[in-house]
Amino acid sequence: MEAKPPIKVAALCGSLRKRSYNCGLLRSAIELSKESMEGVEIEYIDISPLPMLNTDLEVNGTFPTAVQAFRTKILEADSILFASPEYNYSVTAPLKNAIDWGSRPPNVWADKAAAVVTAAYDLSAGGAQYHLRQIGVYIDLHFINKPEIFVNAYQTPAKFDRDGNLIDEAVKEKLKELLLALQAFTLQLKAT
Question: Which pLDDT score, from 0 to 100, does residue 154 have?
């Protein structure tokens, strides 16, 4: 029996901070996919080069170079893994900007599976995750329902080291469960 090609997951972090705990969650997901999962390839997609959405930058149906490169990466992905803190009960401005660029016609998010993880000050970051899910409805992005991952980044014992890397084994295990759910849902969507 021929092996199926792995699903390609585009990983986007809503935080631009160098030692971001949310980026640490994505680094851990990438590590887990390489070490203990078959059939999943995760690529981190840097959203920091994207200009603020301005349709004046679209000329004759083309996008700025950084935007086109980003859109191509999303289009080539089978699913999306978001990691984002919550700012003012919503997703961060850089993440919303990336989503908006991707949704410009033709929408590159459509019919993809998605999952979201959050590291925050406390467990009040549900607003960002739920707002992201609402945005997903409009852009035809389909989120897995469970497991939900909200990591209290400041709780003891420490969940992250000084460089923002995830060190908590229980959270890593939960992250692996999320990746397996995303993989299964992605395959389900691709089969339809």
Answer: 83
DSSP 8-state symbol, 121 = S
- Spatial CA neighbour of 171 closest among 86, 83, 47, 88: 83
Residue 130 has, within 13 A of its CA and on its CB side, a CA count of 6
The Cα 158–Cα 136 span in angstroms is: 32
**Inter-CA distances, 143 with 56, 110, 113, Å:** 31, 12, 6
Query: Given the structure tokens 């980044």, which residue do they identify?
Result: 153
Q: What percent of the chain shows pLDDT beyond 70? A: 96
Confirm if 185 and 144 have CB atoms less than 8 A apart: yes
The pLDDT of residue 2 is: 61
As a whole number, mean pLDDT of residues 32-43 equals 95
**Euclidean distance between CA atoms 23 and 147, whole angstroms:** 19
Is it the case that residue 35 has pLDDT exceeding 60?
Answer: yes
Q: Does residue 157 have a cis peptide bond before it, meaning omega lies within 30 degrees of 0?
A: yes
> Which residues fall within 8 angstroms of residue 148, CB to CB, at 6 or more apart?
129
Q: How far apart are CA 17 and CA 120, in angstroms?
A: 13
Q: For the whole prediction, is pTM greater than 0.90?
A: yes
What's the Cα-to-Cα distance from 66 to each of 59, 71, 83, 95, 112, rounded to whole Å? 14, 9, 21, 15, 22
Residue 3 has a pLDDT of 66
